[in-house]
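My main concern about presentation is that the manuscript never shows what a single data entry looks like. Each protein is reduced to its one-letter sequence and a matching series of backbone shape codes. For the editor and my fellow referees, an illustration may be useful. For illustration, here is how one protein appears when written out as sequence plus structure tokens:
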Amino acid sequence: MSKKLVIKVTAGADSAERCSQAFTVAAVAVASGVEVSLWLTGESAWFALPGRAAAFELPHSAPLVDLLDAVRAGGRITLCTQCAARRDITEKDVLEGVRIAGAQVFVQEAMADGTQALVY
């Protein structure tokens, strides 16, 4: 049975520590060989756009852009459909490899055998 981790991050710059924790856990899991699906919802939706993660700063934490790149390289990143719509973000706006999908896809991923889900 393969290991899979689904992480939903709702925080952005509005709650920097919670946001950084989610991205850190996702990047460490990818580096550990875990299949990772990172969902960007709420204020974290902005990190689906080019340049946004590079502007994020939190003392004593890894650069968010590096964590995001690690997850993009070895996992899957999904931007919530409704969160994207509320921010006028479309598929042509997002980073390469980021998909836009809704709650049905999240539930399918979170309920799959061998999957653990975390919400930040």
Notes: The first helix runs from residue 16 to 31. The two ends are 26 Å apart (CA to CA).
